[in-house]
Amino acid sequence: MRHSGKQSNKTRGARMRDTRHLFAADVSFMTSRLQQLRERGSAAADPAGCRLLLIDDIYTTGSTANACAEALLIAMKKAAPAMTVEIYCLTVARS
User: Fold this and answer.
1) Are 50 and 83 in contact, with CB atoms under 8 Å apart?
2) Rounded to two decimals, what is the model's pTM?
């Protein structure tokens, strides 16, 4: 992760550029938990897919949410290539 500066002072285009490849995700906890559930035979560990909820404090251009979702997808595809991943975003406010 790198510091990209205050986003509120930037144009939409600058925000989109600055947040590209800004984040990285560590999904090791999630994948190890799925493995534990599978070993127990739990129906909660559907090997076909998972749903993730990304929570953001404020939605302006969507650039932060998009960059985070992209990082999560990349990490999940590396950790579990056959798994389908759905990412939903919940924001508290919109400016």
Assistant:
1) yes
2) 0.67
Q: What is the DSSP string of 1-30?
A: ------GGGS-HHHHHHHHTT------HHH
CA 64 – CA 56 distance, rounded (Å): 8
| 12-19 vs 63-79: helix crossing angle, rounded to 10 | 20
pLDDT in tens, 21-47: 678 888 888 778 777 777 887 766 666
- Distance, CA of 73 to CA of 61 (rounded, Å): 20
d(CA 27, CA 16): 24
Q: Are 15 and 51 in contact (CB under 8 A)?
A: no
